[in-house]
Amino acid sequence: MKDKVKARNPEYSRLRKAVLFFGLLFLGVSGANAQKLQIGLNFTPQLSWFQSNMPSQVRTTGNSFGYDVGLQFRYFFRENYALTGGIKILHAGGEVAYVDTVILQAGGRALTVPAATPVGYSNEYVHVPVGIHLQSVEIGYFTFYFETGLSLLFRFNTWVNVDGITDAKVNGDEDMNLFNLAYFAVLGFQYSLGGKTSLAAGVSYIHGLMDITKDTGGKPDDRLIFHSLGLRMGINF
Hints:
By secondary structure, the chain is mainly beta. Helices cover 13% and strands 62% of the residues. An eight-stranded antiparallel beta barrel has the order 1-3-4-7-8-10-11-12. A two-stranded antiparallel ribbon has the order 5-6. A hairpin with a 2-residue loop joins strand 10 (179-194) and strand 11 (197-208). It is elongated, with a radius of gyration of 20 Å. 30% of the residues are buried.
């Protein structure tokens, strides 16, 4: 029943179209010039947390462990310079407490959350990073690199856990915005295994730019953004 509801939801329809568009775009680039294309598979365990521009009304009370996993594409237009993109799944969250009593739409019902009660959010996004990749010349078997750019984030799942009110995480899609935008930076190195194959590792940071929550139900009209700090590990082909 839940899948049928999602299929009729125009937000999920737009999400599927966006994923299909970026997938076809990367396949097109791959077919255009395979010699200049590098494909990587990476996994990034990360720590994420929230920040409000109204800390007197919305306090950060906890962080969350999550991950970012998927495919990375790099198109080299110069020997050490490339355009980078990808298709990934990003899991990020955190915990906040509202100074005043608020009403959250979660689990198909309205939850009255008393003031100062911790509220944990866990979000899953289709993550499409788009940016530029800069790397050094190879030193021994090592190459050092830096990546930066924008992350397009399309939310497809949200769970909410309210301390003392919900026994477990419940669906919180109604309380979250569908689309988000962030910028990212990655600093790391690659170890060559021969040819185009290499192992990679680095430190990543993502900084949200848009409000993740809908400011309804008595919540303050703030901008609640997320941050994440992770350790990227992967292999390139």
